[in-house]
Amino acid sequence: MMRWIVVFQVLCCCCWLVCGTLDPRVLNSLTEMIDEMNDIDYGNPQLRKVYDYVIVGAGPAGCVLANRLSEDPSVSVLILELGRGERPAFSEPPMLGPMLMASDYSFGYETKRQKYGCLGLTDRKCSWTHGRGVGGSSIINNIIYTRGNRRDFDNWARAGMEGWSWKDVLPYYKKIEHANVKDFDENGAHGKSGRVSVEDCPFRSEVAKAFVASAAQSGYPYLDYNAGDILGVSFLQAHSKKGHRVTAGTAYLKDVRHRPNLHISTRSWATQILFKEDRKEATGVRFTKNKRYHTVRARREVILSAGAFETPKLLMNSGIGPAAHLQQHGIRVLQDLPVGRRVYEHGGAFGPIFTMRNGSPAEQNLLSLEQVLTLDEILRFRNGTGPLTSNSIESLLYVKSPFASDPDPDLPDVEVMQSFVSMSFDSSISTSIVYRLPEALKRDYYGPLVGVRNFMFLPMLMKTHTVGRVELKSRNPFHHPVFHYQYFEDERDVEALVYSIREVLRIAEAEPLQRLGIELYKRPVPGCEGFVFNSDDYWRCHVRTQTTTFQHQVSTCRMGPVGDPDAVVDPRLRVRGIGRLRVADVSIIPEPPSAHTCAMSYLIGEKAADMIKEDNQ
Questions:
Q1: How far apart are CA 67 and CA 166, in angstroms?
Q2: DSSP H helical segments within 82-219, as ranges?
Q3: What is the DSSP string of 513-553?
Q4: What pLDDT is stored for residue 19 in this prediction?
Q5: Which residues in 6-19 are b (16+ Cβ under 10 Å) and which e?
Q6: Based on C-alpha coordinates, what's the Rg of the chain?
Q7: 529 vs 238, 371, 506, 535, CA distance in Å?
Q8: Other CB atoms within 10 A of residue 429 CB
Q9: What global pTM score does this model have?
Q10: Average of per-residue pLDDT across 53-75
């Protein structure tokens, strides 16, 4: 699909040039697009033997750390990244996210065969896509920017994680942002001079406006979910600028990549942390680049920001992890810690789906991806307008179900995303691969919707009861880890999602949505035909069959207070029992968060940078 888009853009440019009818402004735009088909060049530095700081992983937290730690010209920083620079022509349009997830910007992880969820997907497995490249998952995600509920952070602080209360983290969130959020710009919760553009999506369908109005009429307050309280409904805030995706690489590294004290080494796979074993101190990292092994030393600290899967894998391969598990693979134990013993995930489902009879002609024409990959729409995108500026998710609803473990009425456990399309919109093979959609499902369930204006909701369970673990497949550092996680192993997770679907159906009866002539799509999902449609048993089957993942795995290197037997790092993100080694990525999040994890990753990077500077004065 990517190759087709490249050919399409180049052919359009050539045809218009030959015809001699190209407006100079259009020519400039097309020339820029061709330039942006190349990777961002982060250089190929002549690596030194020693740096002050060695950072493993250039996801959001790693990019923040590389920028902040290298602000002092007397401090040398090396960041190692397995992937490469992004290609803006493909990474910037949010609508093309699934194509990037199916590319080499993703690790392509997948779960084990599932017993209770993903039942209608290929091989009964769900995809656990994780980004790689300078920017990490911010290159391939859905650009959804949510900070989380203030109560999450206050609960961390009450549990002994000093410095992580909402009051403590809010200044960092404001530091991150350059916000342009029309309805909430003046509420004091947003920053104006940060590196990450956070904005209202330029494109907003009639469905989004009607859904937010209908939810408000149904009792959900319209609010800024990034101001601390989230129970309610709001339009999406995205990490984009004029509808163009903003990644951690472009926000934090692109403009500082030529600092002489900062080296960015791409295509570099860290395989082992090196230690001074008599003192249990990290001294450096062993990695591969250009099919050769290299060793680099760290004077001050080694910082792991490789993500919720690669960070624990690197720790375990280096002798830090559950002793019995490491011994099983013949790895000498340096420190017995519960690395990978927990993993939480935000599971959810595709649907319910609604068809729509009314609406403007432009609204009715939102039928297929091919219709928005025209030259006119690409040029509209270049100017910051049109559907390509959206990832299709336009508004968020936060629901408190009766099945939540926390009784706090202001701590919702389900987020519902409203999309202006369904899976019938995108016929590309990349979408089928990423979401593991079998041909029979596409044909029998989504096929009848092709050419019909329709849209869907995606309920996502934030406060999951199910917990899994991550382990090594072998001691080979190039093998993917093994994920022992069974979606909906705890029945309460399904019940919470069914409750949220019922709330969507209730909201759909409100006048603003009804004015659009919407109707619930009544074709049962294959495998659920034996249940009465729209019964609770049907929706339970729907959730277990049409399961989807939102790539928010956390807690594999869990943060905890001193004395917490389940903690891998302390509240200053230092690995317990090991000197000069920290973890700074979403793997430290101690419990399932009320947020998509990109904003939290930026937060962890900013806060970690300050702690590292304080501890190394």
A1: 24
A2: 88-91, 97-101, 150-158, 166-176, 206-217
A3: HHTTTEEE--PPPTT-TTS-TTSHHHHHHHHHHSEEE-S--
A4: 40
A5: beebeebbeebeee
A6: 24
A7: 38, 33, 23, 12
A8: 12
A9: 0.93
A10: 98
Residues 6+ apart with CB under 8 A from 335: 280, 319, 320, 575, 576, 577, 578
Residue indicated by tokens 């019922």 = 502
Residue 384 identity (one-letter amino acid): G
Task: In whole angstroms, give the CA distance from residue 138 to residue 73.
Answer: 27
Read off the pLDDT band of 20 (50, 70, 90).
very low
Kindly tell me if the per-residue pLDDT of 17 is higher than 60: no
Span 280-309, mean pLDDT? 96
- Give me the residue label for tokens 């598990």: 325
Neighbours of 450 (CB within 10 A): 14
pLDDT at 250 (0 to 100): 96
Place of tokens 């109560």: 151
Amino acid at 248: A
Q: What pLDDT sits at residue 413?
A: 97
State residue 449's pLDDT score.
94
Between 375-382 and 24-35, two packed helices, what is the crossing angle to 10 degrees? 80
Residue with tokens 């030393």: 297
Q: Could you tell me the CA-to-CA distances from 51 to 55, 295, 296, 552, 612 in Å, in that order? A: 10, 11, 8, 32, 15
pLDDT over 70 at 14, yes or no = no
For residue range 541-590, list pLDDT tens digits in order. Answer: 999 999 998 889 999 999 999 999 999 999 999 999 999 999 999 999 99
CA angle 605, 609, 614 (to 5 degrees): 150
Q: What is the pLDDT of residue 575?
A: 98
Distance of alpha carbon 545 from alpha carbon 124, whole angstroms: 9
Which pLDDT band holds residue 434 (cuts at 50, 70, 90)? Answer: confident
Task: Give me the residue label for tokens 């995809």.
Answer: 127
Q: CB of 578 within 8 A of CB of 335?
A: yes
What's the CA gap between 201 and 233, in Å, rounded? 16
